[in-house]
Specification:
Elements (H helix, E strand, L loop, with lengths): L1 H53 L3 H6 L9 H23 L3 H6 L1 H28 L6 H27 L3 H15 L1 H15 L14 H27 L2 H30 L4
Helix pairs in contact: 1-3, 1-10, 3-5, 5-6, 6-7, 6-9, 7-9, 8-9, 8-10, 9-10
């Protein structure tokens, strides 16, 4: 009897360790991602916010694909709104997932959550308008379709996230909130994905062209939101239904993904953000 109890205890301890490891590695990835997202938010605030305060909107146009186009009042208004919302969503998004805030400040979680979902839907609708009303100077038609797919998923996932919260189905709500966060982060993943590719290729970007229509560019246009979603599903499966070995394997994968994310952030900051500050 004692032997059976000892074996059960040992198995329970191993199961606890596997659970702890998968949770720790997910938290580790999230912390690195938050640093990267707030760096992006900082760049948006300082570069776009700073030049707006100086009244120098030419800087915006030089930095963007089209920026402000003479006579395109609607498109230009969406550009302004896009940048304002880009800051709000990139800064406010990670706050939703901090457990301490969820538990100790539920009102802040609810208000920030509603603002996040509203911002996600409006930025996507505005983005769709900008993509289809203006010439595809980068990415071509395939790029337009890929980023539109991202926008549609953001809208659909946002609606499901808010509906599961209203129905108090908190297990489903957490899952959909994670999915929404990852698709909203698609444009951020695009930038760090590019940075990572340059890092892995020692300063060059094979498969990428000036107008972002190369094979690597196309892979990144789709992969920047579909790959994170795939990894999230693997993680959720391993965490909830996976065997002990599955949990350990997922933890190792998350650890590798954290290193890759960190390298991507480091390079994106060097290439896209810091030189413009
Ligand atoms: C949801 C999170 C999003 C964030 C944080 C975001 C952020 C940004 C930022 C910062 C820029 C300026 C370029 C730069 O300095 O890097 C930009 C430009 C742009 N974004 Fe987004 N974006 C998001 C979603 C989208 C979506 C879903 C679409 C399309 C459906 C979109 C379409 C565009 C377009 C077309 C431009 C270039 C505008 C122009 O120059 O004509 N964005 N975005």
């Amino acid at each position: 009897m004692d032997l059976i109890n000892q074996n059960t205890n040992a198995t329970n301890i191993r199961a606890l360790k596997a659970n702890k490891m998968i949770n720790t590695s997910a938290t580790f990835w999230f912390l690195v991602a938050v640093i990267g997202q707030w760096l992006f938010a900082y760049y948006i605030a300082i570069f776009y916010g700073g030049s707006a305060i100086e009244g120098d909107f030419v800087k915006w146009t030089k930095r963007m694909i089209h920026g402000f186009i003479d006579g395109d009042y609607m498109g230009n208004a969406f550009v302004l709104l896009h940048i304002l919302l880009a800051f709000i969503i990139t800064f406010g998004g990670p706050i939703q997932f901090i457990p301490m805030i969820q538990k100790r400040f539920p009102l802040l979680h609810r208000i920030n959550g509603r603002a996040y979902i509203f911002t996600a839907i409006v930025i996507s609708l505005g983005g769709l308008y900008m993509v289809w009303s203006r010439e595809a100077l980068v990415g071509g038609f395939s790029g337009q379709v890929a980023i539109s797919g991202n926008a549609i998923l953001i809208i659909v996932f946002s609606v499901i996230t808010i509906r599961t919260a209203i129905r108090k189905n908190f297990v489903a709500h957490r899952r959909w909130a994670f999915r929404t966060f990852l698709v909203v982060s698609g444009v951020w993943f695009f930038r760090i994905g590019f940075g990572l590719w340059i890092f892995l290729n020692n300063g060059s970007a094979p498969g990428s062209t000036q107008d972002l229509t190369g094979p690597f560019d196309m892979f990144l246009y789709w992969g920047d939101y579909l790959l994170p979603l795939l990894f999230l599903e693997l993680y959720l499966f391993a965490k909830e239904k996976g065997s002990m070995l599955g949990k350990y394997m997922m933890s190792v994968l998350l650890f590798i993904l954290t290193l890759l994310t960190g390298a991507g952030i480091f390079m994106a900051a060097q290439i896209f953000w810091i030189p413009n500050l």
